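Question:
When you can, review this sequence-structure pair and walk me through the tokens.
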Amino acid sequence: MHDHPAEHSLDHSTDDSVDRPRSGSFTPAVLRPRELTPFSRGGGARTIPLVTRAVGAEVFLTGQTLFDGGAGIARHTHNCPESVTVLEGDAVVEIDGTEHHVTRFDTTYVPAGTPHHFRNASATAPLRILWIYASVDATRTLVETGVTTRVDAEHDKRVRARASEDGRRPGSRPE
């Protein structure tokens, strides 16, 4: 039995007595959002990428988005399911045309292709959400424009820029 079952996906296809990782291996990481620099998504929303390809993610993406008072993000869809948990504050989430008031630790589950968006319910207090996409290849399509981008596209730009400044390959670890 493994100490951390969530970190291991087992494949018993050849020998049931041997535990083998199903996919490539990665170095475990402890990510501290307070030590990471958020990037602006515009309109008073900032995102902190957490579990991404840059740290070895192969199955899902996670991160946090922080909203200033009254801030919100545009209505959009994804090519995979998304779950969001409110960590701090109060929000209004619109899912497929229906608004819901959500507060600390409330969690949404939005199927792929379902229009949705979050906004801070407070004009003054901050809002912080944790998002999880069910694919490292998650995309976001803005409902208003139809423009589709990879969720990690902005994260990748930041990783490349930081790695370039340090003289490393993107995704490589400092020595």
